[in-house]
Every structure is written in structure tokens, then in C-alpha cells.
């Protein structure tokens, strides 16, 4: 398992969140919890981990649901759970707007 990166290496501010999400790696379908998100990536916690470099399809529970492609950058086992850092890939303008809207909404709701 890879180590989690230091926070100063991130290119975009991450906002803490707790949302259920689903993701698939092409062979299996999993559910987990979105723990943080930015316009460039997300932190996910799940009962199943995937190796670093695995490409995933993530479905964010927004209205309408937003489907994103990502790649696992790091994985850390934490007891029975796995924490994974995911970098978004090939995000189109519509998905980027939705993610930025979610991040801004979350930042405002915490003030």
C-alpha cells in the first residue's frame, strides 16, 4: 500500500464531506464514502481497496448524479477500511462545474 501524500502537494483545496458514493473498476462494483473533494480529486473510504494506478468510474450522488473517471494515486489500509486518494481524469466542463459547485456549497455550509 502507498503512503498518503502530504497536504502541501495538492494542487487544489479539498473540502471535507461525508457522502455515500459508488465506484467500479471494470471488474467489480463497490460502495464507499466520499471523505473530501476538490476540483482535481477526492478522498474515498471503503471496505475494499484497489491497487494504486487502478482506473475507476465514480458516481457522485448529486442531482443529477455525476459520473467521473479517476485513477487511484495512493491507498492506505486503516483497520478494516481502505482510504484512497483519487485523481480525476478527463473531466469535461459540465462535470467540472458540478464539482466546483459542490465544493463551494460545502465551504459555505461550514461557515
Automatic annotation (TrEMBL):
Q: Which residues form a coiled coil?
A: none
The record's InterPro entries line, in alphabetical order, gives: PilZ_domain
A single Gene Ontology molecular function, please? Answer: cyclic-di-GMP binding
PilZ domain residues are: 8-104
What the entry lists under SUPFAM superfamilies is as follows:
PilZ domain-like
Q: Name one matching Pfam family.
A: PilZ
The protein's name:
PilZ domain-containing protein
Record lineage = Bacteria, Deltaproteobacteria, Dissulfurirhabdaceae, Dissulfurirhabdus
Amino acid at each position: 500500500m502507498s503512503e498518503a501524500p502530504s497536504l502541501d502537494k495538492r494542487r487544489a483545496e479539498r473540502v471535507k464531506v461525508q457522502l455515500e458514493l459508488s465506484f467500479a473498476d471494470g471488474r467489480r462494483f463497490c460502495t464507499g464514502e466520499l471523505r473530501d473533494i476538490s476540483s482535481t480529486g477526492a478522498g474515498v473510504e471503503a471496505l475494499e481497496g484497489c491497487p494504486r494506478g487502478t482506473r475507476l468510474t465514480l458516481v457522485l450522488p448529486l442531482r443529477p448524479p455525476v459520473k467521473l473517471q479517476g485513477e487511484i494515486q495512493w491507498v492506505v489500509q486503516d483497520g478494516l477500511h481502505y482510504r484512497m486518494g483519487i485523481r480525476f481524469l478527463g473531466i469535461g466542463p459540465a462535470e467540472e462545474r458540478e464539482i466546483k459547485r459542490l465544493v463551494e456549497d460545502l465551504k459555505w455550509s461550514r461557515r
